[in-house]
UniProtKB/TrEMBL annotation:
Family listed: Belongs to the DNase I family.
Coiled coil: none
Protein name: Deoxyribonuclease-1-like 1
Record flagged with keyword Disulfide bond: yes
Taxonomic lineage: Eukaryota, Metazoa, Chordata, Craniata, Vertebrata
């Protein structure tokens, strides 16, 4: 019996280690409707701080309902993110999209350059979406999926069924354009409550064609207010190769208010939506030692770039 206990201990250590490594691995892709993110809104320092903490947890974050024609709001957010440590965030924005001059919105992708390279961007124009998808392609040597396409949609609530169905046409367009069928759709589709009913699904090819997997379920609530309980915000992927590159059951609404113990007021200051997210697997066999994907912003500032990868970091308050 005495001979067995070291084995058991090793096994336990192995399990604990695996769980830790597992937890630190992967790359988060998020989608967040920012409900009118303007330069005026970004000048609220508390709001910007909360938002930066949310975006920091994502390796790629799609922001929707951004109204920032001269880029000042996004610039302020990027500066805040890059102040946390040496990991560099970048952004890519569409032009203002919409039918009325008073409601022109941009899609903005913010991404961690240590995790992903942007390798393509394309403004889709084939179907008359209110805000046609601004399609981007990312590459990473660190992720299990090496190259993939993201298709954002903040749908017109009054033609949500039609627009979600049109995403299939966007899929056909971009998969041929870039010879790549690893496509993820994400955004505030209004895919719930009165806008899209159970009965409407038969008219949406992303539902009827089983090549597409819906990673955020019907019963989740991506709205902040108690008065609404709707799965408006969704993430959908095409094909087995992409599905296999995603951590099972990682699709979720990110209730950052609960996570960071923030008041309802502070959460609503940013948006009346919560972000949704999924986690991409890192490439086998071992994840990169950075672990930044799952880390929160450090509470203090320090220069990680001068340290060897994987070192224990001691930060000092400035
Ligand atoms: C968006 O915010 C700006 C000020 O930042 C405000 O003037 C405008 O009315 C807001 N639009 C909507 C649709 O809430
Ligand atoms: C991004 O591209 C550069 C240049 O090709 C490459 O060295 C780097 O490894 C890429 N980054 C990732 C995360 O794949
Ligand atoms: C498209 O991609 C596949 C691999 O995914 C490759 O075998 C094929 O040669 C590519 N076609 C073109 C035209 O680049
Ligand atoms: C479903 O989508 C796939 C694309 O992966 C396509 O090849 C297939 O023809 C579609 N099936 C139907 C029934 O439309």
């Amino acid at each position: 019996m005495r001979g067995r206990s070291p084995d058991l201990r090793h096994l336990l250590l192995f399990i604990v280690f695996s769980v830790l490594v597992e937890g630190a691995s992967g790359f988060r892709v998020c989608s967040y409707n920012l409900q009118n993110f303007t330069a005026a809104k970004a000048s609220n320092r508390r709001m910007l701080h909360t938002l930066s903490r949310v975006v920091y947890r994502c390796d790629i974050c799609l922001l929707q309902h951004v109204v920032d024609p001269n880029g000042a709001a996004v610039k302020a957010l990027i500066a805040k993110l890059n102040a946390y440590d040496a990991s560099r965030f970048k952004s890519v924005s569409s032009k203002g999209l919409g039918k009325t001059p008073g409601d022109m919105q941009q899609y903005v992708f913010i991404y961690r350059t240590r995790s992903f390279n942007l390798t393509g961007q394309h403004q889709y124009e084939g179907r008359p979406f209110l805000r046609p998808p601004f399609v981007v392609r990312f590459q990473s040597s660190k992720a299990h999926i090496k190259e993939f396409i993201l298709v954002p949609l903040h749908s017109d609530q009054d033609q949500a069924v039609q627009e979600i169905d049109w995403l299939y046409d966007v899929f056909e367009d971009v998969s041929v354009r870039w010879n790549n069928t690893n496509v993820m759709f994400l955004g505030d589709f209004h895919a719930s409550c009165g806008y899209v009913t159970r009965d409407d699904r038969k008219n949406i090819r992303l539902y009827t064609n089983n090549s597409f997997s819906w990673l955020i379920g019907e019963t989740v609530d991506s709205t902040v207010k108690d008065s609404t309980n709707c799965a408006y915000d969704r993430i959908v992927v095409h094909g087995q190769p992409f599905l296999m590159a995603i951590e099972p059951y990682s699709g979720q609404v990110y209730n950052f208010g609960r996570f960071h113990k923030l008041s309802r007021t502070m959460v609503l200051e940013v948006s009346d939506h919560y972000p949704v997210m999924v986690q991409l697997k890192s490439s086998a066999p071992r994840p990169p030692p950075s672990g930044h994907a799952s880390a929160d912003p450090p509470r203090c500032l320090c220069d990680r770039s001068v340290l060897p990868a994987g070192s224990v970091i001691v930060c000092f308050k400035r």
